[in-house]
Amino acid sequence: MYHKTLTVMYQRLLLLSILCTFVIQALLGQPPKREFRGVWVATVANIDWPSRPGLSTSQQQEEILEIVDLHKKNEVNAIILQVRPTADALYYSELEPWSRFISGEQGEAPVPWYDPLEFWIREAHKRGMELHAWFNPYRITLDTTDSLSGNHICLEHPDWIFSYGERSYFSPANPLVWDFLTEVVVDVVRRYDVDAIHFDDYFYPYKIADQELPDSVDFELYGGEFYPDRIGDWRRHNVDTIISILGAAIKAEKPWVKFGISPFGVWRNRSEDDKGSETTAGTSNYDGLYADVLLWQRNGWIDYLMPQLYWRENHPAVGFSTLAYWWNDFGYGRHTYVGLAPYRLDRKSKYPQWRKEKYLLRQIDLIRELEGLDGFGYFSSKHFFRKELAKLNKTLQKNHCHTPALVPEMHWIDSQAPLRPTGLRLEGDALIWDLPEISDEMDRPRFFAVYRFDPGGNTQIKSVNNLVELTGETRITFGERVPGGIYRIAALDRLNNESQLSDPLEVQ
Are 248 and 350 in a shared domain? Predict the structure, then answer.
């Protein structure tokens, strides 16, 4: 009953949205037609989902539906779901145990059994959203006192791990760790219909004052030409190696699956490198986390970067605009998105720039002005459910993101457009179309763009002015009656290349 009610509500909202779109478009400037709009759904410590461990399967699924429905209303086109937060799995795996954030105890499956990742993928795709599977590569525990499932690989290979501060980690230097991480990631790519593999900023751990990383033994074992005095270069080499291995392994398994990294927002300060940003950050990707993310982008090992620019405009050390302009220049032909921080919005913040949503919206405006930036992502999902951010949701839906957006294409992977849909017809309160036959999996339609034109207008142009819906289904149901006009459908393949328009269908 709950799911049925949500479906009816969604249909009515869709009808209302399409009817209002034509009026709104005349009053407001258009957002871009191509733009990445993602949202992180963090599972570590139950930040976003599930809201607490031990929820029943039906409760977990209800929360998933609430999340994807809200972000669909905000025209988000990618869910970035954390599927491996602490060397565990929010999906069925023979390599790692079920995550403690599902049941409260590592190794226990959902009850009744279901596969959360499979459910997330289905519901995201149904709504025209990509699903990026987010992995933390090295973190094993949040606290060294956390108990591990009896079948955890770390119990079999204690020499693979080290502790730093209160947490334990896989050693980034150990070649056997590289092999295992590759096996874990490729296992998901092979078995699930994910659109991308995603890592955030946790490579070598953030430095703790007066504590050295305990990797001197590994340095002696694996340091090679870097030993004994180039430990920083060696650490970067270790991270470079796993990124290059994974980039190749993902594409070898499924060429269309993207690989993206969301690094800390500063590569290096100008004081450390002539190419660095005009910032005075206390740490950086290159020197603090040993992650040379520009090298990965430049060498084509990854498909996108999404630096976390979680700072206000006038921050004295790391101003938002300073960094946005800097990252704009370092795409190297790949995509660059920007991580935004709605979690910082707070009416009681001591910083005026975080008291009102208009400042976050201005950050979106700047991203759209810069040609080298291709979109943005929000951290994180749960904050859009805060009553305090109701105005942000409303403004996104009426102004900044009031039309759907297609995820930008990645022509370095594939640029061939798919075949167009056929057989567009009206059946009751639904438009329905057919798929063409395909022989290449790369060309399989993933989503469909629904265009509506006024009678007598130009129906040949695939303009955002006429784009009313993105869906992963071969039908669009309005719940009451289909608004009058001329409709045409375009298919989007796995890399979001857009087909020719279908034959037109006029609805009276």
Answer: yes
